[in-house]
Structure formats: C-alpha cells, structure tokens
Amino acid sequence: MTARKPHPVRPGEPDDLEFMWEMLYEAAHHRPLSDPLISRYLDGWGRTGDAAVISLDPDGGSKRGAAWYRLMPVEGPGYGFVDASTPEVVIAVVPDQRGTGVGGTLLRGLLETARSQGFDALSLSVRDDNHAAVRLYERCGFVKLSSGEGLWTMKADLTVPGGE
Fold it and tell me: What is the model's pTM?
C-alpha cells in the first residue's frame, strides 16, 4: 500500500479569485453564481475579515480545492449565519480529488488561520444528506446548531482545543 502524499495548503491570493468562484459553483451544487444568495460569499472579495486557503497538488502545483471565510452582515446573512462576528465558511474540492483528504487539510488550515486572526468561532451550512462532510466538520470541532430546508448550520468554537 502506498502512502498518500501530503496536501500542501497556502494562503489564498488575489490571483486565486477565479478558482474560488469555480469552487463556489461546486459548493453551491451548481446553482447560478449570479444568485445574490450565492455570490455574496465572494462579491467584493478582500474586505476586512476575508481569508482563504488553497490546496495544491504536491506534484504539479495545480489547485485541488479552496476554503474561505467571510463575515456576513445581519441584514444579508448567508446560509450558515450565526451572528455578525462569526465568519461563515465555504469549502469545496475539485471533483476528482474528493475523498482524498483535501477537504480536511483545507478545513484545518482555515481553522488555524481563523484562530491566528483572533476569531472565536466559525460557522457553516451543509446539506443534511452530505454525511461525509458532516462527519468531517464534526471531527474538526463543528457542532450542529439547527436544521431547516435540508441544511444543517454548524459552528466551531475556536476558543477550546478540539477536532483532528
């Protein structure tokens, strides 16, 4: 049995924005990116509180996935909104890399980034039938807060050690 190669992760850069839009399309299950409920996760990227990590193929440097968070206002919340001081997470992996550990590496990198930036928590929304993602989020310290419309809202408390 061959060991898996590591999944290098680096901070997101302005040049990653096009790839992040592609990953948002995947995360939104191919809903139109023109939908304001979807586009709010990247419109005007680079404002205070925005942060991203990108996973790269260790052999060639091609992008394998992206994860980012953004603070959402009370008057324009996202699907995983908890409060105006808790950034919402978006995470997606290119289809042929799913199930290889890229998502976990991205999420751990994003949690580390959020802690280093002084955030106390992160939240997200996940389809309730996406059992693999729910298990990953729980392993990384997220807990289910509420459900509705086929979605779980989950939150990770970054002030306590936990998760993988």
Answer: 0.91
